[in-house]
Amino acid sequence: MTNIIIAGAVGLILSMLGTPLAIRLFSRRGYGQEIREEGPSGHYDKRGTPTMGGTVIVLASLLAYGGSHLATLTPPTVSGLLVLFLMTGLGAVGFLDDFIKIYKQRSLGLRSGAKALGQLVVGAIFAVLVTRQPNVYGITPAETRLSFLRDFGPSSIGIVGFTIWVLVMIVGFSNAVNLTDGLDGLASGATGVVLAAYVLIGNWQLRNNCIDQLGPNCYWVRDPLDLAVVAAAVLGALIGFLWWNAPPAKIFMGDTGSLALGGVLAGLAIATRTQLLLIILAGLCVIITLSVIIQVGFFKMTGKRVFRMAPLQHHFELKGWAETTIVVRFWLIAMLCAALGLGLFYVEWMPKA
């Protein structure tokens, strides 16, 4: 538990103090956000706001994780390092995308194929490594199986099928957070509540692991405490960043932050054996992604639009909702989704009538 507190506190302090330094540095270098011409007109006022703030989130998270282990004289675990590798690798892809936008002064960075390739390469390395490295009890960070509250079903999908499934999760959730990052503070708050949920999940899995107390509801998770430490480190860094990213934002996280955050959510879900539960925990991001899929699919079939604009948050902007109203209401939806996911996670521990 001490590791969790230290990681969250260090991440918060580093991000809170580091973000204004990044704002000044990026402003001097002209690393400002470009705005899509087809976007809501109110967004033009945001042109030139420093972006690539996700670098602060990633660096603060890594330092907080390392600092917590240094302070408690405990070694990092394979599960924790793999999730952080996934976050950092996808953050690097996002950083390249952001840098191209700034360098070429346009709203689009990497071509979609190159961006997807970067996500797939990082994801494939993670997918292969996460099924290896067993501990002394033979437990690996993940099994080649699906999971909801724990692993279920046969492991016959094999490493190839599992890798494909993991890649779908990683690309899907990294892009989902990216789509959610359309208004000041929206993605930060939405992913923050999911990370808070994973702090609780990791801590509960530690207290009910099958090594210490074998029982019908125990968890075969390799490093539950360290996964909670990872979640706490990123959550602390995210809260510190949100202080400056809340409306009106002084800095944007950019693809550097959104891809990294989507990656850490997918990594935590895979390593805690709660893959399908993440769809509920991160329900807001899923809903926003579905709005884009529905909009594009319906337009291609009928030539008409379901929403005034996709992603969904821009639909409400065009309906006249204030940006802060949308952000706060969407945060509430994100909290309800996370609460529902946690309720499902704990339901099997409820006393039977």
From TrEMBL:
<dbReference type="GO" id="GO:0008963">
    <property type="term" value="F:phospho-N-acetylmuramoyl-pentapeptide-transferase activity"/>
</dbReference>
<comment type="similarity">
    <text>Belongs to the glycosyltransferase 4 family. MraY subfamily.</text>
</comment>
<feature type="transmembrane region" description="Helical">
    <location>
        <begin position="152"/>
        <end position="173"/>
    </location>
</feature>
<dbReference type="GO" id="GO:0009252">
    <property type="term" value="P:peptidoglycan biosynthetic process"/>
</dbReference>
<keyword id="KW-0573">Peptidoglycan synthesis</keyword>
<feature type="transmembrane region" description="Helical">
    <location>
        <begin position="48"/>
        <end position="66"/>
    </location>
</feature>
<feature type="binding site">
    <location>
        <position position="178"/>
    </location>
    <ligand>
        <name>Mg(2+)</name>
    </ligand>
</feature>
<keyword id="KW-0133">Cell shape</keyword>
<dbReference type="InterPro" id="IPR018480">
    <property type="entry name" value="PNAcMuramoyl-5peptid_Trfase_CS"/>
</dbReference>
<feature type="transmembrane region" description="Helical">
    <location>
        <begin position="78"/>
        <end position="96"/>
    </location>
</feature>
<keyword id="KW-0472">Membrane</keyword>
<dbReference type="GO" id="GO:0008360">
    <property type="term" value="P:regulation of cell shape"/>
</dbReference>
<keyword id="KW-0479">Metal-binding</keyword>
<keyword id="KW-0812">Transmembrane</keyword>
<keyword id="KW-0961">Cell wall biogenesis/degradation</keyword>
<dbReference type="GO" id="GO:0071555">
    <property type="term" value="P:cell wall organization"/>
</dbReference>
<keyword id="KW-1003">Cell membrane</keyword>
<feature type="transmembrane region" description="Helical">
    <location>
        <begin position="326"/>
        <end position="347"/>
    </location>
</feature>
<keyword id="KW-0131">Cell cycle</keyword>
<dbReference type="GO" id="GO:0051301">
    <property type="term" value="P:cell division"/>
</dbReference>
<feature type="transmembrane region" description="Helical">
    <location>
        <begin position="276"/>
        <end position="299"/>
    </location>
</feature>
<feature type="binding site">
    <location>
        <position position="255"/>
    </location>
    <ligand>
        <name>Mg(2+)</name>
    </ligand>
</feature>
<feature type="transmembrane region" description="Helical">
    <location>
        <begin position="251"/>
        <end position="270"/>
    </location>
</feature>
<dbReference type="Pfam" id="PF00953">
    <property type="entry name" value="Glycos_transf_4"/>
</dbReference>
<keyword id="KW-0808">Transferase</keyword>
<feature type="transmembrane region" description="Helical">
    <location>
        <begin position="6"/>
        <end position="27"/>
    </location>
</feature>
<dbReference type="GO" id="GO:0046872">
    <property type="term" value="F:metal ion binding"/>
</dbReference>
<comment type="function">
    <text>Catalyzes the initial step of the lipid cycle reactions in the biosynthesis of the cell wall peptidoglycan: transfers peptidoglycan precursor phospho-MurNAc-pentapeptide from UDP-MurNAc-pentapeptide onto the lipid carrier undecaprenyl phosphate, yielding undecaprenyl-pyrophosphoryl-MurNAc-pentapeptide, known as lipid I.</text>
</comment>
<keyword id="KW-0132">Cell division</keyword>
<dbReference type="Pfam" id="PF10555">
    <property type="entry name" value="MraY_sig1"/>
</dbReference>
<dbReference type="GO" id="GO:0005886">
    <property type="term" value="C:plasma membrane"/>
</dbReference>
<protein>
    <recommendedName>
        <fullName>Phospho-N-acetylmuramoyl-pentapeptide-transferase</fullName>
        <ecNumber>2.7.8.13</ecNumber>
    </recommendedName>
</protein>
<keyword id="KW-0460">Magnesium</keyword>
<feature type="transmembrane region" description="Helical">
    <location>
        <begin position="185"/>
        <end position="205"/>
    </location>
</feature>
<keyword id="KW-1133">Transmembrane helix</keyword>
<dbReference type="InterPro" id="IPR000715">
    <property type="entry name" value="Glycosyl_transferase_4"/>
</dbReference>
<dbReference type="InterPro" id="IPR003524">
    <property type="entry name" value="PNAcMuramoyl-5peptid_Trfase"/>
</dbReference>
<feature type="transmembrane region" description="Helical">
    <location>
        <begin position="225"/>
        <end position="244"/>
    </location>
</feature>
<comment type="pathway">
    <text>Cell wall biogenesis; peptidoglycan biosynthesis.</text>
</comment>
